[in-house]
Amino acid sequence: MDVRCRNMVQRRLVEQNTDYRLNAQLQHACRMDIAKFCSALVLDKAAESTELQGKVIQCLKAQFVRHQLTKTCEPVVMGIVRDAALDYQLDPVLARACASEIQNSCKDDRDMEECLKSRFQNREIKSPECKKEVARLIHEGKADVQADPILYKACLHDIKHFCHDLTPGQGHLLSCLLTGLESDTIALTEECRTLLSKRVEMFEYAAQVAPVESIRDVVQQIANSPSRNYFVVVAMGVLGIIFVGGLFCGRVTKRLPANLKNK
């Protein structure tokens, strides 16, 4: 491909990943997911005239990691995640949060994302925002091993040999590899075993820095859910039962001494 053409394509991809409205395929495939999980971002009036700074796609990526996307949306987001894993510029949120690391510590590294992961694992990244985004990047690699190109390349033979019948995504391939890592009967290649062991340590640290699921996430999902009224009714019903039960128990407790006196 001609250099000018390649640069133009890359620029268009960066624009699409910055503003989901420029990606017609994503809009169509993920319209239900955007309405369900990212409505607050879309409905923000202040965002209507801006590029949204990649926040909607980041929102979809978060649900991709949690395996919450619809069957039509998941492969599209998976493609975006895989492309971004090969070129950090296609991840505008990461590029913005880790600008200092990219321009200084990793400027001479050919694989920018691997450099960020390495510095993350070695506790060398100081920026909380950058640490959070690199942790998110690592979570994406757990959900789809092809979003971790270095690990995928190191373990490709093992994936083809031991995990060939599994569907990519939702952590299936990584789960298969981790089973092989812990097994005495499955012999992973040395390259895969070594890198996978290091990745496990990184996964654990990423889970500490940015847990995949939190109480706040659950509350937000309920708030954005079309069934939120159902959750409210159920919660009110439970509180009502507790209240009535408390009143009943209180009356029984007050009457008990009188009954004992009559005896």
Automatic annotation (TrEMBL):
Family annotation (InterPro entries): Cys-rich_GLG1_repeat, Cys-rich_GLG1_repeat_euk, GLG1
Main location: membrane
Pfam families the UniProt entry points to: Cys_rich_FGFR
Keywords noted in UniProt: Glycoprotein, Membrane, Receptor, Repeat, Signal, Transmembrane, Transmembrane helix
Species of provenance: Amblyomma triste (Neotropical tick)
Cys-rich GLG repeats: 1-68, 125-185
Range of residues in the leader sequence: none
Transmembrane spans: 230-253
Name of the protein described by the UniProt record: Putative cysteine-rich fibroblast growth factor receptor
Superkingdom, taxonomy of origin: Eukaryota
